[in-house]
Amino acid sequence: MRISIASGKGGAGKTTIATSLAVLGTERGLSITYLDCDVEEPDAHLFLHPTPGEEQVVTVPVPQVDEQTCRAAGVCGDCGQACQFSAIIALGEQVLVTPDLCHGCGACVLACPAKAIHETPHRVGVVQTGQAGRIHLVQGRLDVGQTMAARVVRRVKALAPAADLVLADAPPGTACPALEAVRGSDLVLLVTEATPFGFHDFTLAVAMGRALNLRMATVLNRVDGYGRDIRAWCAGHGVPILAEIPTSRRVAQGYAHGELPIRKDPEFRRRLEQLFGQLVGTAGALQR
Amino acid sequence: MKVAISSSGAEMSAPLDPRFGRAPYFLVIDLESGAVRAIDNAARQSAGQGAGIQAAKAVVDAGARAVLTGEVGPRALTALQGAGVTVCRFAGGSVRDALEQFKKNALARPPHAAAPRV
Question: Is the ipTM of this complex over 0.90?
């Protein structure tokens, strides 16, 4: 069973909740694979403290043009016509390749009538594994200055070892890396900050899940007065609220020291246990 | 020789647009004949990255050997220089003003472009 933890707004509490759910799972005797898909700023390791394992380089196949063959064929520019991202383009008598824009789709290779293009690997990031008790952590890390985050996310998912429960900690937002992180999940748990801003971005995240035809549920986090609008919206749109977590100074203090909030605040633990039960029940019902 | 100028309008009296990749038009001027041709810069509609590269292709395909503009991004600058196009910067004024300054050889050439926006 794979559950992804996502949110429209950043800082809503995805990692706080996902790491706590992982530990609660091991307390119940489950094996857990934790996928840190927030490859632009992976931080689950700060709370899970894994012993480091292997590291694999993630590459994108980018085109390399054999200039002689290309010129002999007249620099037709078909490669640039095929590319949707301007990563390869014919400019006058030469072909310019911009690796940072390349999505590695291979369209230019197919489009070239002279067969003057072959692909070479271009490094965009790494995937690191680690072990924290019964939690197997797989973490993606995009290189500084690179933009192909979804590629790294895809590799994180591909390297996930089987487990009783796979938790995918998604990047915030609704762009390509977030889509890639939640794609194929049995359930998407949307962590919603109980503020107007959190509400707004939550509705965007629901639209993303709907577009991918995914089952969704939400947890309201840092509830501190505001929340009526979100509850009404969820009731009207068929998104169940599995738990509500109040604002807690103890959770914030623990977070600042890299400590799991379930170990710092009994009330937080109680709500997370409720969430865990609901979550496994919701996703389990789906599997039957 | 042809010169391309990034422009906010399709006429010589229009203000020069200081952004190369996202300028609405390029006015391509043939210095020998004085003929002016306006190119609609389709790249400015591009939501993602690569607008500068597309714009560079548009002016290269139009036969321009020099570009007069405000700011050029690093990718567009690489593309233009790779195609042998001279890039000149003009702080403000109309397309006609920029052309006059260029003819007097009084425009600055950027040693490097701004850092890439990621």
Answer: no
- Domain map of chain A by residue range? 2-58+125-287, 60-123
- On whether the A2-58+125-287 domain is CATH 3.40.30.10, my answer is no
Question: Across the interface, which of B49, B83, B116 has its CB nearest the CB of A94?
Answer: B83
CB within 8 Å: B50 and A86 = yes
Does B23 contact A at CB distance below 8 Å?
Answer: no
Q: Which residue of A has its CA nearest to B50?
A: A86
Of A91, A92, A101, nearest to B50 by CB-CB distance is A101
DSSP3 helix / strand / coil % (chain B, rounded to 5): 30, 30, 45
Selected for mutation to probe chain B from A85, A88, A91 (highest B CB count within 10 Å) is A91
Chain A hits for B84, Cβ within 8 Å? 92
- CATH classification code of B2-103: 3.30.420.130
Pick from A36, A88, A30, A95: which is nearest to A60 by CA?
A: A88
Residue in chain B lying closest to A149 (CA): B118
In SS3 terms, A217-262 reads as: EEEEEEECCCCHHHHHHHHHHCCCEEEEEECCHHHHHHHHCCCCHH
Task: Report the topology of domain A60-123.
Answer: Alpha-Beta Plaits (3.30.70)
pTM comes to 0.83
Per-residue model confidence as pLDDT tens for chain A (288 residues): 999 999 999 999 999 999 999 999 999 999 999 999 999 999 999 999 999 999 999 999 999 999 999 999 999 999 999 999 999 999 988 899 999 899 999 999 999 999 999 999 999 999 999 999 999 999 999 999 999 999 999 999 999 999 999 999 999 999 999 999 999 999 999 999 999 999 999 999 999 999 999 999 999 999 999 999 999 999 999 999 999 999 999 999 999 998 999 999 999 999 999 999 998 877 665 554
Kindly list the domain boundaries of chain B, sorted by start residue: 2-103
